[in-house]
Amino acid sequence: MTVLVSARRHARLVGALFMREIVTRFGRESAGFLWVIGEPLLFCLGVLILWSAVKPAYEHGIRVGPFVMTGYMCLLLLRHMLSMSVGALQANVGMLYHRQITAIHIFIARNLMEFCGATVAFIVVYVVLHALGEVGLPHDWRLLYSGWFLMGWVSFGFAMIMAGLAMKFEVLERMIAVISYVLIPFSGAFTMAAWVPNSYRDLYMLVPFPHGVEMVRGGVFGEFVKTQYDPLYAFAWGAIFLFVGLILIADARERILVE
Question: How many CB atoms lie within 10 A of CB 258?
Answer without folding.
Answer: 6
